[in-house]
Amino acid sequence: MGILNKCYDKDPQVVFREVAGEMILVPVRNNAADLESIYTFNELGGRIWGLINGKRTLDDIKTILLGEFETQEEELNRDINGFFSEMENLGLVREKK
Fold it and tell me: pTM score, two decimals?
């Protein structure tokens, strides 16, 4: 099964906010923000994060993004694969089985 058939859910202990035009992701551990692990996203990354709901496959997300952003499908595939690979390695998303 390819990565685009996978479905992911967000770590519930992560807070995502837009602050002063920046999209920020902050893990919350033991009821306190982990300020050592703040992540910022560009517009595409923020939109991908917003589309993760535990039901959409990565292919579903790609289809939505192709309609919203002017980009080539191959480039978007690389961006999506890289985004989810990094988020999974950081423990910020987990694959739904």
Answer: 0.87
